Amino acid sequence: MEWKNFDLLDSYKKLAGLEKTDLKAVMAGESGAERVKKYQVPMPAGMKYSFAAKQVNDETLDALQGLADEAQLTEKYAALYNGEVINTGEKRLVLHQLTRGQLGDDVIADGVNKREFYTTQQSRAAEFAGKVHAGEIVNEAGEKFTTAVQIGIGGSDLGPRALYISLENWAKVNGTLKMEAKFISNVDPDDASAVLANIDVAHSLFVLVSKSGTTLETLTNESFVKNALKEAGLDPAKHMVAVTSETSPLAGNPDYLDSFYMDDYIGGRYSSTSAVGGVILSLAFGPEVFARILDGAAASDKLAKNANIFENPAMMDALIGVYERNFLGMGTTAVLPYSQALSRFPAHLQQLDMESNGKRVNRFGEPISYKSGPVIFGEPGTNGQHSFYQLLHQGTDIIPLQFVGFKNSQMGNDVDIQGSTSQQKLCANVAAQIMAFACGKDDENQNKYFEGGRPSSIIAGEQLTPEALGALLAHFENKVMFQGFVWNLNSFDQEGVQLGKVLAKKVLAKDTDGALTEYSKMLGIF
Amino acid sequence: MEWKNFDLLDSYKKLAGLEKTDLKAVMAGESGAERVKKYQVPMPAGMKYSFAAKQVNDETLDALQGLADEAQLTEKYAALYNGEVINTGEKRLVLHQLTRGQLGDDVIADGVNKREFYTTQQSRAAEFAGKVHAGEIVNEAGEKFTTAVQIGIGGSDLGPRALYISLENWAKVNGTLKMEAKFISNVDPDDASAVLANIDVAHSLFVLVSKSGTTLETLTNESFVKNALKEAGLDPAKHMVAVTSETSPLAGNPDYLDSFYMDDYIGGRYSSTSAVGGVILSLAFGPEVFARILDGAAASDKLAKNANIFENPAMMDALIGVYERNFLGMGTTAVLPYSQALSRFPAHLQQLDMESNGKRVNRFGEPISYKSGPVIFGEPGTNGQHSFYQLLHQGTDIIPLQFVGFKNSQMGNDVDIQGSTSQQKLCANVAAQIMAFACGKDDENQNKYFEGGRPSSIIAGEQLTPEALGALLAHFENKVMFQGFVWNLNSFDQEGVQLGKVLAKKVLAKDTDGALTEYSKMLGIF
Lengths: 526, 526
Prior knowledge:
- Two copies of one chain form a homodimer.
- By secondary structure, chain A is of the alpha/beta class.
- Chain A is 43% helix and 12% strand.
- Among the domains of chain A are: 196 residues, Rossmann fold (3-Layer(aba) Sandwich); 29 residues, no CATH class.
- Chain A is globular and about 70 Å long.
């Protein structure tokens, strides 16, 4: 197996030399219909990845398959799940897929079978959640806990929060919403204050999540919450559990009701299927629903093993994204779920993608001379249509679009107006947008002219169930992983976040000079 | 007054020829401290716009002042607020500033003094809100309304929602939270279902907002809500008011308790200070708080009249943004408020900016040959630091950053840990980030190397009060307006949203062919 910079591959030159597809032309008429039928890859939970409206043709796809083979994407994935040190910067294994299935060899690290380690933590979380729901673990007054509050930031917040919001209403109508979940993340004191003002602390169970047990924001918010509990005459140790690594100061600490473990082989942004998401989601929805999320993710992980890009949706998605980034010159990607439940999913993907592949050095620490990860942003449709879509349709840059849509709503409550339901209107809008972006519209009035040629894909499914959500989550994790392999990056460290932390400590220690002193004065710190 | 394309101005050539500032060098040591002291513009409510960490120097600023003069920015602003037809596409006046003050001549349109029209609507909204709060307007059971629910999308949603979230906790601690506000926007039936499941409909007052009275999503959601009210045995006409234009089917309709008016001279994304924001915010916070938002906005509008860019923060901000976009080649801007209360403010700015200036034709409908509005995205700090900042620090593209921060929290509840409060930690982080982005850090290990040279500005204030919020809102509206003037765009129409609507109607009428038929099948519409 060879780790080479992207621009040293034969496929790079080949892709650079290909004629560009005229998207507007190929998506018109019968040719467009044929493309929709042909250019799709099945995904788990009845979903499919459809890329007919991407700026590719058979020749591009051949070259992208060639790139996948030459860059040894499936071999590198196998190396990862079989336990090689893929996170070269921090010299760590990368094992998040192992939280939801065994894809290859047993992985033994630190003297333990890691699959067993993760499933043990899942069982412990499930058992704990079961006891909370059954009223066996209760507050000091012997009353049931009704609310679970996650205290964490970054990967300990965005993924679990996005998943919770995605299934909250589904769980309500399916009778599996066991506890309401809330999240505290920001060091801004107004964040914790506002959450605490809106919950009944006496019936709240706090889940403190920090791998190292040293995250500034999380420890600060822990103190905030402990103060609030004490002020209410409550014992914090009876209201709080920890999710942390076995070597952290939070592990097995009597200040917590219980501790659940993660390890260094799962980065924060990949940790939703570990105990980081497992504890809060098992508390909120019950362990059975969390297990269904894992099943969906495992199914996506399995598909990602396929060498044929027409059988590997994450790899297809990844390669088309690379083509857009490096050969079509598109620097931003919009994630546009036509599902209100996925309202915070783009924020999770923003971290997942930008923190993994927003890098300027390769996995050996050498500067690269091609573009790496794009900027990711997005909001749910149809809301975005009434907001930033103007620029997407008629702006001076072309922004590739990643749509997601489902045939059925989650809550099943709908209204028929002028011959169609809201859900049909929602789906009609996403179908219409794909075509509007691809084909545009001629008009003599240039202000009403749409040039088209704006590429999009859609992941289309039946309903946003726990399995579909897990499959979506893992699809994007694997997409980002494959792109990192192509760009020859280490997608699993994040050195770019360190400098700010160091300088913030200097400010708080009043150890500054020059402009930093002036800014500190301006912000009232000095 | 002359409307010329940007690249035809002498200033364009001048700016293109300027030597680029070495940001890393000028922000180091004493030079950096001097820049922070010198490169700032006062804003209302004790705020300042600080641009020391932007990639500009005195020579650039001279040239930008020259551009402001040559492009006649203050004259064009005066033409706008004095009632010229600035929205050339739709042949309309542009009068949103008039909702908060009289900047120039009386503007008479449709036979009425428009300032009087807007203030009359404000008084009517204030009077109505007062009666609701006093229990003079009540539900059928004679009980007080406790919750106000806005039904609207795009500009009828994002701005008012962002403003509500920005002040919700401030209002709680200051005893002015009169009613809780909720928002329904998406045509996704799960959006309305979820909101309705979480409120007490019998004590809820719905504010239906649609200028035309024909917005698909809003009318659909109105039906949704009316069904829910009827199912609860309630009379919808006793639970709903309309905010609309005087000529819409919703105006003066007996189906509503009352109607409040806007007009065609205020675009949706500029309508937060009209009745679109006024009714819901007066209900939620009381009319006095809404009036304070207007005062802050009016103060920003007044500053925007200054021809000297050192006395006009919106113009300075606009011009630096243009310089980054057209001469430094930066295509995206991140908005990063270090304030949890501003969590949805970036989503509002995303619409404001991208819908206004995401255009490829000038105000005469002729294609332009330079870049116009950038992509805007953002999340509050410190959360973003643990998410996408990796790419901002070490990615292959440079993304200009727009920070916002306040010395004091809104709720005043804080905790001291290791010698500093949460608020101090929050402010220390934003100060540190500015310097980390500007100056970077040398390291032999390229993976830990930060190249710096990444420009940012900060709007720094005392506290996020209603005045500060109003001033921020108008600052960005005026920034976008000035940029539109420089780019010679019509920032006040949005033809780019039309095609999708037309095609969605075709889908719902089953009047499709080719790929659109296939997508409709894939999404279960046919």
